[in-house]
Amino acid sequence: MKKAVLISIGCIFVLGMIYTITAQSNGRRILPPPEKIFDSMPEKNNKPLPTLKNPLIVVKKKERKLYLYDEEKLVKIYDIALGFAPVGDKEIQGDGKTPEGEFYIFTKNPKSNFYLSLGVSYPSIDDATRGLREKIISKKERDQIVSAINEKKTPLQNTKLGGEIYIHGGGAANDWTLGCVALANEDIKELFNGLTVGTNVKIEP
């Protein structure tokens, strides 16, 4: 009984506050519906990134974090998700692992299946060398990858080493990708708008 009385008093108090806030000298106005209130609120990341002179992306897989630097200065930290088999370096196509090593952004895709995406230059020269040594790829494929990396172009994406590794949207709640790095859509939008092709990317265990 006492609980019901307290709840009633609380409701009356809240209604009274709304009335007081919305009352005007020449009458009362109707509060906008909730969806209008939320539409008018600023987004979580509504401010664009500052102009970056020498940006660097560092992905720390164990932490599930992406660190954005400008030279030595840390600019921002983002939550990320990884491939469905997140532990260890990527070895072959379809293993579900997110690669480790030093890469660069080789393309920006505004029509990604996962909102927006930044292409990561996997496989690297180290990956290609390992692939040849372990007879996963041919010498011709290895040489093509090395040539593309040296020119900072797109390495072969369709070998048995795997490819099409992107930093993209779609959410970072759990590890769900095929080897990519996933962020919230609003976060990848910031990176997409603030970074250019050629930006260096370092992915650590």
Q: What is the CATH architecture annotation of the largest domain?
A: Beta Barrel
Uncertain segments? 1-45
pLDDT average, as an integer?
84
CATH topology of the largest domain: L,D-transpeptidase catalytic domain-like
Beta fraction = 25-35%
| Radius of gyration over all CA atoms, rounded | 24 Å
Order of helices and strands: HEEHEEEEEHHEEHE
Describe the structure in your own words.
This protein is α+β, with helices and mostly antiparallel strands. It folds into two domains: 2-39, no CATH class; 55-204, L,D-transpeptidase catalytic domain-like (Beta Barrel). The chain has five helices and ten strands. The protein has helices spanning 2-22, 34-39, 125-133, 139-150, 185-194, and strands at residues 23-24, 27-28, 55-60, 65-70, 73-79, 101-112, 115-120, 165-168, 181-182, 200-204. The chain has an eight-stranded mixed β-sheet, covered by helices on one side. α3 (125-133) packs antiparallel against α4 (139-150). The protein is globular. Residues 1-45 have low confidence and may be disordered.
